[in-house]
Amino acid sequence: MYHYTFGGLRNVWLVNGYTVKQTPMGEAVAFADGEGLERAICTALADKAGHLTGAELRFIRQSGLLMSQAALGKMIGTDAQSVARWEKHGRVPKWAGKLVRLVFMAHAEGNQPIRRVVDRINTVERLVQQTIVMRERKGAWTSTIKDVDADEALPA
Q1: Residue 80 contacts by C-beta under 8 Å, 6 or more apart in sequence?
Q2: CA atoms of 77 and 121, how far apart (whole Å)
Q3: Burial of 75 (0-12, 13-18, 19+ CB in 10 A)
Q4: Residue 59 contacts residue 101 (beta carbons within 8 Å)
């Protein structure tokens, strides 16, 4: 079996659906239907008994809802620092874990009002994170619009 540790998960094992390959850089793993695998893991995390760990919350946020910490915070009524702290230290409040599970499951099952809210928050977050990058070449300036990930630095 393959121990799937992406995103800090420690409790996910794959029986099949993956291929281990040797590359010049070392061992690599390819997954059959990676998006489907991530969706299935998020569903299993949302359905599991007990509290969500910080890594599990992060996985649902990133892979299931495609949200930044700030966007998730806005949606559940807290700030990005709280979400970051929960993910880092693993102590997710019961109410937050339940709410994230509920939102993910409704989103995954196609609940249109929930999907619209998640999409709207993600769109606003992406637009806020856009940066205009200017370059001068041979006396003329050009610009590009860059979506900047919350954890990504701007180019030098």
Answers
A1: 68, 69, 70, 73, 150
A2: 13
A3: buried
A4: no
Q: Where are the alpha helices (DSSP H) in the chain?
A: 34-47, 54-59, 69-76, 80-89, 94-108, 112-128
pLDDT tens digits along 68-87: 999 999 999 999 999 999 99
| 80-89 helix and 69-76 helix, angle to the nearest 10 degrees | 110
How far apart CA 104 and CA 109 sit, in angstroms, is 8
Tokens of 77: 């009524």
Segment 31-42 shows an average pLDDT of 95
Q: How far apart are CA 84 and CA 130, in angstroms?
A: 21
